[in-house]
Amino acid sequence: MKLKKQHKSIFVQPLSCITLSIITTIGISPSVLAVTGISLHSPEQAAHKQQSKIAQFPNTGSSDRAQILQQANALYNQGDFKGAEENLRKLIKQSPQDAFAHFQLGNVLFQQKKSEQAISAYREAIHLQSKYALAYNGIGMVYASENRWEEAITEYKKALAINPNYAEALTNFALAMWQTNKKDEALSSLEKALKIFQEQNRNEKVNQVQRILQEIKKSDDPSVS
To answer: N or C: which end of the chain has fewer CB within 10 A?
Structure first.
């Protein structure tokens, strides 16, 4: 069976992100290829200087803010997405201009399959931080989860316009291009993502992208069953 036919549904899994210089685990990863079990990449593989700089996370040192984020993170890890949402909404009520809190809220809402609310939260993060590449990628992932590929592509392009070396967005963009029968563009984007992951010494992601490339390349090979 060809990859295009196999890759019909989207799943999300937790993934690391940066908050206040502490690695946390509120986040989402994008598409998972059901046939291979490959987790791809999300708004939140931002544990690199370049991406965290692009995201322009709020530079507030509030211990209360940090505590609320940590509580939300703990609840998220327990699978209590509603509890994590409540904590993030509490933070937003206190600090409505906190773009990162809105972004994280989008992640948690996406985990609850509240697509429109998630998009609204990501949009608010972008409203507050116009060059929030991670939030554009997040919106693209929401659209991809609903097979709204053209809309997803538009959002991924916005993320890549801000940061052309955003490897997660490049990978997500490639999958969306593949779904819209643009194989050459998909392969080109994946090759670029692969090179970036290699330069960042992110071996797990290197292996994942290599496997995706193999799946795409062999999917049109009649000699491969």
So the answer is: C
